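SAMPLE LOG
Freezer: B-3
Tube label: C17
Construct: single chain, 473 aa
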Amino acid sequence: MRQVVLPVVGTVEAWRAAVRGLAAAGVAPEDVLWSVGEAAADLFAGKAEPGVPVELRLSRVATEGIATAMLHKDPARFWLGHAAVLGVSQGRLRWGDRSDPVIGRLMAMEKTVRRAIHKMHAFVRFRELPEVQAGRRSFGAWFEPEHPVAEATGGFFANRFGDMDWAIATPEVTLIFDGKLRVERTLGRPPQVEDGTEGLWRTYFASIFNPARLNPKAMQSEMPARYWKNMPEADLIPALIRGAPAAVQAMRERTLSEAPPAYRARAQAARDALTVPDAETLPGAAALAAGCTRCALHGPATQVVWGEGPQEARLMIVGEAPGDREDLVGRPFVGPAGQLLDELLAEVGGERSAIYLTNAVKHFGYRPQGKRRLHMRPTRDHIDHCRWWVDIERRLIRPKVILGLGATAAEALTGRGERVTERAGNLERLADGTAFLPSLHPAYVLRLPDMEARAAARARLREDLAAALALVG
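STRUCTURE (predicted):
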């Protein structure tokens, strides 16, 4: 077993040089023990037996991709890179073939590393330091990247901040620029330095925060919480999130109060039109719903797909949203999922004509792909806006039992859309006392690729339909 110890500074370049030497000596990847900074303990360390030399031949894309993957923190990265270099050079492997375990893992690592580099570009926060060179301001920063990518970001920072002196310290290495970029090993975290401009930055950050466009999940996806501790504005974020609803309401009121009288009159008329209509029949409510513009789905959809069934129905079945077929026809459950539902109803002795069928969301949401319209799951905003119409249907029908198909229906009726597969078949009570039976959506059953799993899910949905029919008597 041959040991190769790579330096902390210049790790990737040293690895590439080592791989070239190992390939020339014909040393196999499994005969090499890699480490960074200091040798790893190994009972069998020694000199590996030479083998057949390998001439390295890699495309530029493969070379760059493998080198980028070597910036990952995975302990196996050097072994994987060595194996990929030899395999691609010998024609046994092809860079880009994600089905191969080695190449697929390296390409996933490359993607993660590129994201970590992007995060470092975005989230380094400098603090001003005492002047080192006359006429040049000096700045320092401490950053903890998810992977050891600091050296790969040096060129970016040198190009962007070439008119000042700066240092960016990370747990592994420190980037230093004083007119020329150099990299040194980090010996310890530098002392924290107060910066008077941070207060100004925090004020600016709070002032540009737009509560009306708040999306915490998207924000944390782009700005993970692990980086917050080194960002001066981070401690403002929880309070800004908590205060967002009140801030949005204040914005609305301020906008209306400052608007011209004619605009305020039109806005008030629009709000009045959104009050719950006084509809005493399902056809009347359907006519009102036909012009619904409460959420963005009304734009691309063909039409509102209202519920179908008798107003005196004792069983109400609520699905997710119309599909492509339902959107074109204007009736619920007429596509593949509806056909499966009809088939199961026939098996348990139910009659569709005696049941009220509807969806939690009344418009078809989709994304185009060529000539096809691919279904998109409704968002919480869509569910919240359409819950208004579902409540009207419930008030007019007053069903004894509601069977909810899928997570969207469960969220619309109970406020909780999680763990539907566990909740399926277990009777619950809604706030008004109505019996609610959560179950699987027929579309979910049809999407299952495994035939055994599909058969089990079909049987479960069939049992829930039978139970719902038994409850209504």
